[in-house]
Specification:
The complex is a heterodimer of chains A (213) and B (253). By secondary structure, chain A is mostly beta strands. Chain A is built from four helices and 14 strands. By secondary structure, chain B is mostly beta strands. The chains are: A mainly beta (213), B mainly beta (253).
Chain lengths: 213, 253
């Protein structure tokens, strides 16, 4: 039985959709010196996780935040060295996620302050697994739709992504793999109300506040 | 006091050091080899520092960073003392990194440098292996280099902070098959422990069990299957690990 709330380690991947790859432009020059060969992951630690209805306070000095709507695959059992055709058998459910980042244009260095501040990962409860290629994620900021994101645009679809990632690391029961975020996602400001939704997954609402005093 | 965790007789036990043996809470003494070492703490968030020693930054031909270069590790990569770590067949350069590991003992946010050392429960040793063949210039060092299963041995002991009065002046030593290949001192850290705690806690809540791997000095060397690697931090402990090839690691797969 899968837990209702995410309790494992949450990983995400960048540059996993055609729009983002196009937007970032040529990767041949420094500092990248070539397109990535393997999936490029990041980790969202436990302090980032908050639920629907949260008020997220940005770190001191920040007044804007990128809101990257995505979904996470929730592992139902430990999985490593998966074959793509078997990979989805290990997934117990999915979560709707808003991966928050302080704006950073460069993917060269790990973006810990930018991506790991307290509250930087609003997450829904865990939902039954559906075919995510049929999903479209909608991001609204202060009631205005700022992004619609069909997940059939992913470069590595979930099964392929799980196979490649689990080649070098075990994903344990309850761990989550976010399937990809937009490069330079839409920005919310201090005071904004944000809603991320997808048909069949419901919605995730939260608001952005300034630094705690 | 030195505290460890072991698997013995079908259960996980917290143990203390007793003249080369380990002592269970009920007084039983066990000899090395009669139990399996586990990492001395059940880790929470694991932070690691890149280029936190000026000599090492030079060695890798990088300018020393102006803010701490921090990356994160998942629990899959942590393993205990005397474990095996796999060198994949296609790797041409895999190196150890001997590091002082700081274990957080309290919850804290916006902790000042002056208060930072009160957050520390104790210290252990980490060997933050890297396989440079997999380095890519995206969120570098990328997780394929630094978050591989069992590629970050930790332990064997958690030494109480009170027993390490000056953590910023400890000798670090790495030996491959008994031959010293890396020597340095924590005095050469660019961002010291209080600075790191102040920096991290300025945007994240730190929690008990979080671990900061504080970086490694110069003296990297390639490790090969069969090599025994000892990473030691003075006044803390000596962590032993063995490199194995794919065939050994996956022998029963």
């Amino acid at each position: 039985m899968i837990k209702q709330q995410v309790a494992g380690t949450v990983y995400g991947v960048i540059l996993n959709d055609r729009v983002s790859v196009q937007k970032i432009g040529s990767l041949d020059e420094a500092p990248y010196k070539g397109a990535p060969k393997a999936p490029v992951l990041y980790l969202k630690p436990v302090n980032t996780r908050v639920g629907c209805g949260s008020v997220v306070s940005l770190p001191a000095g920040a007044d804007r935040v990128e809101v990257a709507a995505t979904v996470g695959l929730v592992m139902g059992r430990a999985a490593a060295r998966l074959a793509p055709e078997m990979a989805l058998d290990c997934v117990a459910g999915i979560v709707l996620a808003a991966d928050l980042s302080l704006p950073h244009a460069s993917y060269y260095r790990p973006a810990i302050r930018e991506k790991c501040f307290d509250g930087a990962l609003p997450l829904s409860s865990v939902k039954p697994l559906t075919d995510i290629a049929g999903l479209s994620l909608v991001t609204e900021i202060d009631g205005e739709v700022v992004d619609r994101r069909p997940l059939d645009e992913l470069i590595r679809q979930p099964a392929q992504l799980l196979a490649e990632v689990s080649e070098w690391m075990t994903l344990n029961e309850g761990d989550v793999l976010l399937v990809g975020v937009r490069y330079q996602a839409p920005q919310a400001r201090v005071g904004s109300s944000v809603r991320v939704s997808a048909e069949s997954l419901g919605s995730l609402n939260f608001s952005i506040a300034g630094a705690e005093q | 006091m030195k505290r460890g965790r072991i698997a013995y007789n079908g259960a996980v036990h917290q143990v203390t050091e007793a003249d080369g043996k380990v002592r269970l809470a009920d007084g039983r003494l066990l000899n090395e080899g009669d139990f399996q070492w586990l990492p001395p703490v059940e880790v929470g968030t694991v932070f690691a520092l890149g280029l936190n020693y000026a000599d090492h930054a030079r060695e890798l031909a990088f300018k020393a960073p102006e803010v701490p270069l921090v990356f994160l590790k998942g629990p899959n990569t942590i393993t205990g003392h005397k474990a095996q770590t796999r060198r994949p067949a296609d790797a041409t350069y895999m190196h150890y990194e001997c590091e002082l590991a700081v274990v957080i003992g309290k919850t804290g946010k916006n902790v000042s440098k002056a208060e930072a050392m009160d957050m520390v429960a104790g210290y252990t040793v980490a060997n933050d292996y890297a396989i440079r063949d997999y380095l890519e210039n995206y969120y570098r060092p990328n997780l394929r280099v630094k978050n591989r299963d069992a590629c970050t041995p930790l332990g064997p002991w958690l030494v109480d902070a009170a027993d390490v009065p000056n953590p910023m002046a400890l000798k670090l030593t790495t030996r491959i098959n008994g031959k010293t290949t890396q020597e340095g001192t924590t005095a050469d850290m660019i961002f010291d422990i209080p600075t790191l705690i102040e920096y991290l806690s300025s945007f994240m809540t730190l929690n008990p069990g979080d671990v900061i791997l504080t970086g490694t000095p110069e003296g990297l060397a390639d490790v090969k299957p069969g090599d025994t690697i000892e990473t030691e931090v003075e006044k803390v402990c000596c962590l032993v690990n063995t490199i194995v090839d794919d065939a050994t690691y996956f022998a029963n797969a």
